[in-house]
Write a structure and sequence with these properties.
about 425 residues, mainly alpha, about 75% helix
């Protein structure tokens, strides 16, 4: 590697480990590289590069989907979804834990983020589990783990960013995430079921049996909220809307739902808008600075170097071997970087290389998403571990210990996605969407 490239990498690592925010850790080395190392690249070019990404039509959909998830929290939909999930699986031993995973899967079709799931639905789930006599750390562990489902099942903020920076169809990524999301939910619930059968602690978990008459009443309460997923996916698949237009349609639906439930007021709607803007500002700033890094790496010839090295790896071990190596890299990156930042850092560099090697970008994109997301429940920087520990006044160490029990199941799902690409590609293919 050239001295210029080492300058960018070392400066980035120094700033990141010094505690500088990720956006500035990415941007400052690139600006210094342009001004000093490369002999005075005009600063206006940097600004133009940033605005080119910020004005991406695909990226504009992200605020819409984030707003939908927050509006659903404001509308009180989380309670209805959790009660519906309890009615379905509460009869099993450890029923509330099963309902936790199932409700997270349903709420994922509205939230699009892991933190939104953990901080919204997660509060309801942990409160009910604690009141039912479950250990608080067990409740926090499954809540943190099930929050991983948020960005896997569409709509997903990370998939939108991948689509924008990696030039991949967002609709294809959305459809590609449905089966892995269902598989991840099944893996979490299987883990809970095995512990309920084979562990001493699991055999003490209670069942939460709701009479069938009451259980049937939860269906009409949950259906309007679940209609959000149908609107988003149905409008995209029917060719009625682009993902960006579907996001706006879902926002109107969520707002109308909130008015019908009489939960939305001007005050809480304004607070919801402010929370969405705050979250989007962080994502957008990271996306902008990551675009400069991708541009700098392209000039330094990083894609060519990666293509040569990864191409050799593929010749030696095949496509599956190459993707397994990439999966390990994403798992490691997820332990140290925010999921969005890691995706924006790697996607602009790796996506063109994978395309040149003939690997489906939709398949590779889902491997990246799942691999990086597992990092949100792994130390040292598992974001959702801190969220659930903070809202319940628990130690991060105790929550981490419990959440890591689900790590093997998640890694197995990642391996299955790598070995069997059709898990990801089947739905986009039968829907007539691009998988490249």
């Amino acid at each position: 590697m050239s001295i210029s490239l080492w300058f960018i990498i070392i400066t980035f690592l120094i700033l990141m480990f010094a505690g500088v925010p990720v956006a500035f850790s990415l941007g400052v080395p690139c600006i210094l590289w342009g001004l000093v190392v490369r002999g005075g690249i005009p600063i206006t070019f940097v600004a133009q590069n940033i605005m080119g990404y910020m004005l991406s039509f695909t990226l504009i959909s992200m605020p819409g989907f984030l707003l939908v998830g927050r509006l659903m929290n404001t509308c009180g939909v989380t309670d209805k979804l959790f009660k519906f999930a309890i009615a379905i699986v509460g009869r099993w031993r450890g029923g509330l834990a099963h309902a936790n995973a199932l409700a997270s899967m349903m709420f994922a079709s509205m939230s699009g983020t892991a933190v939104g799931d953990a901080g919204g639905l997660g509060l309801v789930e942990m409160k009910m589990m604690k009141e039912a006599g479950y250990d608080p750390y067990f409740a926090a562990g499954i809540t943190a783990s099930s929050s991983v489902l948020g960005p896997i099942i569409p709509p997903s903020s990370i998939m939108i960013m991948l689509g924008a920076v990696g030039e991949v169809s967002v609709a294809s990524l959305f459809y590609g995430g449905i089966m892995p999301g269902i598989l991840m939910t099944a893996a979490l619930m299987l883990n809970i079921a095995l512990r309920a059968i084979f562990t001493k602690e699991g055999r003490t978990w209670p069942k939460t049996v709701i009479p069938w008459k009451e259980a049937l009443k939860t269906i009409p309460q949950a259906l309007p909220a679940l209609g959000t997923f149908v609107i988003i996916i149905g409008s995209i698949n029917g060719g009625v809307c682009t993902p960006t237009e579907a996001a706006i349609l879902a926002v109107w639906y969520a707002l109308i739902l909130g008015l019908c439930y009489r939960k939305v007021t001007f005050k809480n709607f304004w607070e919801t808008l402010c929370q969405t803007i705050d979250a989007c500002g962080t994502f957008m700033l990271i996306a902008a600075t990551a675009s400069i890094l991708a541009w700098a790496f392209t000039i330094e010839g990083v894609p060519m170097m990666l293509r040569a090295s990864l191409g050799g790896l593929m010749e030696q071990y095949g496509q599956t071997g190459l993707l397994l190596v990439c999966g390990v890299i994403f798992l490691i990156l997820g332990c140290f970087l925010d999921t969005g930042a890691a995706a924006l850092l790697t996607a602009p560099i790796l996506m063109p290389v994978m395309k040149a090697l003939g690997i489906s970008l939709v398949h590779f994109g889902l491997i990246m998403v799942v691999g990086l997301l597992i990092g949100i429940i792994t130390p040292p920087f598992g974001l959702c571990l801190f969220v659930v520990a903070n809202v319940n006044n628990l130690t991060v160490k105790g929550v981490t210990k419990e959440a890591l029990r689900y790590l093997p199941a998640m890694v197995i799902v990642l391996i299955l996605i790598i070995i069997f690409p059709e898990i990801v590609l089947w739905l986009p293919r039968i829907s007539g969407l691009s998988i490249n």
